[in-house]
Amino acid sequence: MERVLITGAAGQIGSELTVALRKKFGADNVVASDRKTKTSIELRNSGPFEVVDCTDAAAVESVVKKYEVGTIYHLAALLSAVAEANPQLAWKINIDGLYNVLEVAREHACAVFVPSSIGAFGHSTPLDGTPQDTIQRPSTMYGVTKVAGELLCDYYHKRFGVDTRGVRYPGIISNVTLPGGGTTDYAVEIFYEAIRHGKYTCFLREGTKLDMMYMPDAIKAALDLMDADPAKLAHRNAFNVTAMSFAPEEIAAEIKKHIPNFTMDYQVDPVRQAIAESWPNYMDDSAARNEWGWRPCYDLPAMVKDMIDVLSKRLAGAAAAPGRPRFATETNFARG
User: Fold this and answer.
1) In the chain, what are the domains?
2) Active site includes 67?
3) By the number of CB atoms within 10 A of the CB, which of 12, 46, 51, 266 ranks highest?
4) What does the pLDDT look like over 99-143, one tens digit per residue?
């Protein structure tokens, strides 16, 4: 059986996609890689792991040859707020790293999954029902790299026949990985603060509506698209996918149904607020639904209930363990 390589496997999506792929294909057939030497014990012990910096083309090729990789899930990237703080590094990782992966895929006949983002849109894009094919003029380096990445993947498919596929993810909410530099991170932070302290200070303004998705659906989208019949794909890369859309006060209201005393106030971060205002309120994902049968499993109420159920149990167990670090120091906050 051909093997799968995941770059950025220690990141937000990668850490959970690795688990899902190892369940699907067998642990020995899924190679996790990341440039960080310090990763979770589960990631290292559940299957092959390699330290790989995607900006090092020779290192990527070496792992592909060593394991006879047939499919690459390329997740290594800097997220929006982090990328805006260091745009030069963002270009190096998000574009030079992708170019290296595509070149290796071309040489070794690998299929490639590359996630894009709602960050690929900008102020001139329709905010409501954002079409699959529309104007894309982002105002951030993160967005610029995502648009360039979409075009690069399309080029490698049309010019070289590389089986490239990808989705435009909305904000992703995880009950496993902690926030790490994204504009939509408030929708994860809010649960930890609600459970621990019964209150949260939001860095986005009230009424700031954004597309969101629960991590199980994000994983499902990646697996479903890579399993799709290529003959049915009119589009190849950057399919709009979404599951729910809400503003901070709407998720807060849903949390209050489970934690009645919960309160939220606001301390707006101008940088992340400006980024959020350039992104869609909600995307039209009909192309994904029609071409490969995309259907999310979680809406806002279902996601909130599951997040609170899972995190309440986990945080209660962590509180009982002596010496357990608090939220702000539990992780280095790095994500793929």
Assistant:
1) 3-170+215-240 (3.40.50.720), 172-213+243-281+296-319 (3.90.25)
2) no
3) 12
4) 999 999 999 999 999 999 999 999 999 999 999 999 999 999 999
